[in-house]
Prior knowledge:
- By secondary structure, this protein is α+β, with helices and mostly antiparallel strands.
- The strands form two sheets. A four-stranded antiparallel sheet has the order 3-2-1-5, covered by helices on one side.
- The longest helix is centred in the first third of the chain and has 52 residues, at 16-67.
- The protein has one helix at residues 16-67, and strands spanning 71-76, 79-88, 91-96, 104-107, 112-114, 128-131, 139-144, 150-155.
Amino acid sequence: xxxxxxxxxxxxxxxxxxxxxxxxxxxxxxxxxxxxxxxxxxxxxxxxxxxxxxxxxxxxxxxxxxxxxxxxxxxxxxxxxxxxxxxxxxxxxxxxxxxxxxxxxxxxxxxxxxxxxxxxxxxxxxxxxxxxxxxxxxxxxxxxxxxxxxxxxxxxxxx
Length: 159
């Protein structure tokens, strides 16, 4: 079959060289953007874990005031990255699953107890720091003051 020479060159389609050039450019752009997706995933996981922990700390504080009892927040298997529980005595009020292997808690108290007035036990008041395995993403620090109030802010993690 003879090519239709009466059609202008533009109407005949792409050449193989042109198609391969476009595919090569797309492959390069995809490779460059995949690194930012890893960063975005880590940042989202850290932010989510920090907000979950702040919500559970606020819940524990409010339950302590409501019940006028000590409420304890403690890590599962002595590792905050595996999750945590909010407990009154032996009763589990709330349990949070593992945060994932992408983040760690390099600085965290062993447990945190709120008394019936909603104040954090002075013996356990420490900041929680949530960081990625590498220092490429900003982490979060959760500050708890003796009155029991907690807040989350960004922090630079040590690599």
